[in-house]
Specification:
Helices cover 28% and strands 21% of the residues. By secondary structure, the chain is an alpha/beta fold. It folds into two domains: 259 residues, Alpha-Beta Barrel (TIM Barrel), CATH 3.20.20.70; 80 residues, Elongation Factor Tu (Ef-tu), domain 3 (Beta Barrel), CATH 2.40.30. The strands form four sheets. The protein has an eight-stranded parallel beta barrel with strand order 1-2-3-4-5-6-7-11, surrounded by six helices. Strands 17-16-22-13-14-21-18-19 form an eight-stranded antiparallel β-sheet, covered by helices on one side. A two-stranded antiparallel sheet has the order 8-9. Strand 3, helix 4 and strand 4 form a beta-alpha-beta unit. Helix 4 packs parallel to helix 5. Keywords: Hydrolase, Protease.
């Protein structure tokens, strides 16, 4: 099936208009709560997963009814929503794709994100008017590949993470397809995320959405004739983390990417917390808006870097964008964060708010409220009452309490607390519980 000339022309016009106006900030939405937060904190578009054929099987994901509601909510705000269909499929999987696409076809999703050429072909056959975006899993590294995919009906390519800024510029000069680049989030020790470790060690395929993250595990050396004797490669006795990648952070290079002609800046993290989505989205929103408002005088605000350290993360790297020799963190696989996410505002009634707890905190603690447009305020937790009006001294996870918060407050604002306060420790496990806990 050839691509209609008018569709290619439309792609070129959309790219040129976007380049002259505004780069897209594309944000993960693992469930409905996270989608609402992503839109509220500044996303131009969100990407979500359905119940089939995505690469985040353990994310919340959306059934058809939830997806319909998510689409309506996103479009009401004048924003876009893309559905991931980016798993690589086996013969037995391919049989179910047609039925799923038929069920999806009536929904007004703005595009599908695909990796597998077979899935792409089924989309073109069953839902030919749907916009198609190519996942980073397809490892696109040059303009000729972009032109090839464009001839197959792809309108946007998420470029391979191995590219540097000069190579991205060359691809832009050599093609007029939409370009998307990851700017923030977790990375894999694999080629553009196509990893075989999980399948080899656990039988769970990363390329089918069930990664067990074995690149984060603690490894040691075993000599063939000494079974059971484990020799640490690092002398600190904790093992080695030679496959443990840092987290990507390209905040400093937002102007470089925009000037290179990138159409969409993408944040990783459909399995991350609601707080992660809010905190990271508002920083990149602020950076993009400041640059577009006054490119000649743009400067990266040191506060933004400080704010990103308040989110659970591994040590940051720029990876290849400029090349970073420390892209792999060999010391440990611990998450770092300076703050805990402790609550979300559910209702506002006059000068009082109904807060839903996420982690334990107490009256007298010093905490921060954060909202969109970099709005934030620090205050001391005042006396609180439960929903029956009884005094509460300690707010437990999932508890709902009324309190007074100074300044402007809105539904969906989040609360956090610095971890250095007495009785609280910095995250030290290889699996950060806040990253795993459902929101």
């Amino acid at each position: 099936m050839s691509v209609p000339a008018e569709k290619i022309l439309s792609t070129r016009i959309n790219h040129m208009e976007n380049a002259m106006n505004k780069v897209e900030l594309l944000v993960p939405a693992g469930d409905m709560d996270k989608l609402k937060i992503a839109l509220r904190f500044g996303a131009d578009a969100v990407y979500v997963g359905g119940r089939q054929f995505g690469l985040r099987a353990a994310a919340g994901n959306f059934d058809l009814d939830q997806l319909r509601k998510a689409i309506d909510l996103t479009h009401q705000q004048g924003k876009r929503i893309y559905l991931t269909l980016n798993a690589y499929l086996r013969p037995e999987d391919l049989a179910g794709v047609d039925g799923y696409l038929e069920a999806l076809r009536p929904l007004a999703t703005d595009g599908y994100i695909v990796s597998d050429p077979g899935v792409l072909m089924r989309v073109k056959h069953i839902d030919p008017q749907r916009e198609i975006h190519l996942s980073t899993q397809a490892n696109t590294t040059n303009a000729e590949s972009c032109r090839f995919w464009q001839r197959q009906g792809v309108e946007r390519v998420n470029l391979a993470r191995e590219l540097n800024i000069d190579e991205i510029r060359q691809i832009r000069r050599g093609s007029d397809i939409g370009l998307e680049v990851f700017v923030h989030g977790a990375m894999c020790v694999a080629y553009s995320g196509r990893c075989l470790l999980s399948t080899a060690l656990t039988g769970r395929s990363a390329n089918e959405g069930a990664c067990a993250q074995p690149c984060r595990w603690n490894y040691a050396l075993v000599e063939e004739t000494r079974p059971g004797q484990y020799f640490p490669i690092e002398e600190d006795g904790r093992g080695t983390y030679i496959m443990n990648s840092r987290d990507l952070c390209l905040l400093d290079h937002v102007p470089d990417l925009i000037e290179a002609g990138v159409d969409s800046l993408k944040i990783e993290g459909r399995m991350k917390t609601l707080y992660y989505v809010a905190a990271v989205t508002r920083i990149y929103r602020a950076a993009i808006d400041r640059y577009l408002a006054d490119p000649a005088n743009y400067q990266c605000d040191p506060l933004w870097i400080e704010e990103l350290d308040k989110v659970s993360h591994r040590p940051y790297t720029t990876d290849y964008l400029p090349a970073d020799d420390a892209a792999v963190h060999t010391e440990d696989s611990r998450y770092r964060r300076t703050h805990d996410f402790i609550g979300v505002v559910r209702e506002v009634a006059g000068d009082r708010v109904l807060l839903e707890g996420r982690n334990r905190f107490s009256i007298g603690d010093t905490i921060e409220l954060i909202g969109p447009q970099m709005r934030q305020v620090t205050f001391t937790v005042p006396p609180c009452q439960d929903e029956q009006g009884e005094p509460v001294a300690v707010i437990q996870p999932n508890a709902r309490v009324w309190m007074t918060i100074p300044g402007t407050v809105a539904v969906g604002d989040l609360l956090r607390r610095e971890k250095s306060q007495p009785g609280w420790t910095v995250a030290g496990s290889t699996s950060d519980p806040l990253e795993k806990k459902p929101i």
